[in-house]
Write a structure and sequence with these properties.
Elements (H helix, E strand, L loop, with lengths): L1 E4 L39 H7 L6 H9 L6 H13 L14 E4 L5 E7 L7 E5 L12 E8 L11 E10 L14 H7 L4 E8 L4 E9 L9 E8 L4 E5 L1 H8 L14 E3 L8 E4 L7 E5 L5 E7 L3 E9 L6 E6 L6 E6 L3 E6 L9 E4 L5 E6 L6 E6 L4 E5 L20 E3 L6 E6 L6 E6 L3 E6 L22 E6 L3 E6 L6 E6 L2 E7 L3
Length: about 500
């Protein structure tokens, strides 16, 4: 990341496309070709050298420098630049000096866009679309849902936002003359980004939101998209946002107040929670939710839009349930992570409602987990101490009682690069070696676990200390809370934090 001093704007800022920066002169006009006002002062190169670098004899200048009385501004800049060039600034490790901010190296991004909303949305989910898989064309389009965190005094302004982000162009790196024939295509790729939203009122702040799309029974109809929103008041609201998504691409569509009402309002939790996950294998919809009391409930959908929670909770955690994940290939199995430092694996058919596997993986809170869709025996976890790890579930032994296993299995991979809590972790949707990790040190990192430690070329980190060879990319984002890969745009990552949303694609993935 490059550092630059903070500059206070003198007036209204000009909206810019990704990667562009305004260049202005002191009077506010764009800078033109540099003109040397002293270009006629000297008649020959010899005369310039004879006068010394500052117009005085070298002997006089050197004498004053030795007495510490005078040094040129140019020399000060040279010293500062030499000092800065000798180190690499790593967000989360290095500290900014007063009056400094960070600016991204735009040459490392293929796409980079940021947007802000009226209120922070600290949880969101990407919604699959009908625009095709593995698409690489620009401008890109993304559909998503998010829940707001309005100020306590303005809680009535909370909403579920259904979003369409279009016109997401690639970075403008300039074109050669030989590419002039592609002007029309370039104009499309450099379109201005557009954010469209549909609002559904919510009675409270959103702790976590998850979306799940199910194929239609009739091929002439669009897929059905449900959202589950876990609120700060402990309620879980289930909405059908299908009509809201359709309205973006069908002019004249009117959304009735009834269509914005929840299909179900679930009240089985006594305390708030942050753990929500939809089953990828149950067509009519099956939902897991966990709360701060350590209880986990299962809610099942049925024909006619009815949602029935099982009021017998799964219990076993000694503290709050922080995250839940259904198995990607076994419809009755799920995993849970807790602030008690354990990960537990459960079978919903168990009459005892106790975990089948119980493993202590951290001495701190286990905040997040992610189950690999490609290699289904791999589970990743992120903890409060900044450490994240990958576990081989085949090495975990079934529990004989409610106590966690005393012999902690060795992680397949473990990293302590981040120095603050891990807030989000997710496997790449099609590559089982690529991970995205977000942390409280204001960074979102991309990793390649396929890098071999004994590969001499991979060990070369350009002299940067503490940079693991598996670390592909570091993206700075203030107070980043959640990140997700787009399942249909390879390498595209979307994230949210206190400052709004970021969506980007790097040259590394």
């Amino acid at each position: 990341m490059a550092k630059r001093p903070v500059e206070e704007p003198d007036g209204e800022q000009i909206p810019l496309k990704a990667g562009q920066r305004p260049v202005q002169t002191a009077d506010g006009n764009e800078a033109g070709p540099f003109e040397d006002e002293f270009e006629d002062e000297f008649e020959s190169e010899d005369e310039i050298l004879e006068a010394g670098v500052d117009g005085r004899p070298d002997e006089e200048r050197e004498a004053e420098e030795k007495r510490g009385m005078w040094i040129t501004l140019e020399r000060l800049c040279e010293i500062y630049a030499m000092d800065m060039d000798q180190r690499t600034f790593i967000p989360g490790r290095d500290k900014l000096a007063a009056g400094e901010s960070l600016s991204p190296d735009t040459s490392t991004y293929e796409m980079l866009h940021n947007l802000t909303t009226t209120w922070p949305c600290l949880s969101f989910d990407i919604v699959p679309d009908q625009l095709g898989d593995a698409r690489k064309a620009y401008p890109a389009t993304v559909y998503a849902v998010a829940g707001t965190q309005a100020d306590t005094r303005k809680a009535n302004q909370n909403e579920l936002m259904v979003m369409k982000l279009s016109g997401l162009s690639r970075m403008d790196r300039g074109r050669d003359d030989e590419d002039s024939d592609d002007d029309d295509e370039d104009d499309d790729e450099n379109a201005d980004p557009i954010l469209e939203t549909k609002s559904i009122p919510l009675p409270s702040t959103t702790n976590r939101i998850r979306a799940r799309q199910y194929p239609p029974q009739n091929s002439s109809k669009p897929p059905t998209t449900f959202t589950a929103t876990m609120l700060e008041n402990s309620d879980i609201l289930i909405h059908d946002v299908t009509p809201h998504l359709i309205s973006f691409d069908t002019p004249g569509t009117i959304i009735t107040p009834q269509q914005s009402k929840p299909l179900a309002s679930l009240k089985m939790h006594r305390t708030e929670g942050y753990a929500v996950d939809w089953s990828p294998l149950v067509p009519q919809g099956k939902l897991l939710t966990g709360d701060n009391d350590g209880k986990i409930f299962v809610t099942t959908g049925a024909e006619g839009g009815k949602w029935t929670p099982d009021n017998r909770p799964f219990t076993g955690h000694e503290s709050s349930v922080e995250d839940l994940q259904w198995s990607p290939n076994e419809r009755n199995v799920f995993a849970s992570a807790s602030s008690d430092g354990t990960i537990k694996v459960w079978d919903v058919r168990s009459k005892s409602r106790k975990p089948a596997v119980n493993v202590k993986v951290s001495d701190t809170d286990v905040n997040v987990i992610s189950w690999s869709r490609q290699t289904t025996h791999l589970l990743a976890s992120g903890a409060d101490d900044g450490q994240w790890a990958v576990w081989d579930l085949r090495q975990w032994k079934p529990s004989s009682d409610s106590a966690p296993s005393t012999s902690v299995p060795k992680a397949v991979a473990s990293f302590n690069f981040h120095k603050e809590q891990i807030t989000s972790i997710e496997w790449h949707p099609t590559d089982d070696s690529i991970m995205a990790v977000a942390a409280g040190d204001n960074t979102l990192t991309l990793w390649d676990l396929a890098v071999e430690l004994d590969d001499e070329e991979s060990k070369d980190t350009a002299g940067v200390q503490g940079w693991p060879p598996q670390l592909l990319f570091l993206h700075y984002m203030e107070m980043v809370k959640e990140c997700h890969w787009h399942p249909q745009i390879p390498g595209c990552v979307m994230a949210t934090g206190d400052g709004g949303f970021g969506i980007f694609k790097t040259i590394s993935v």
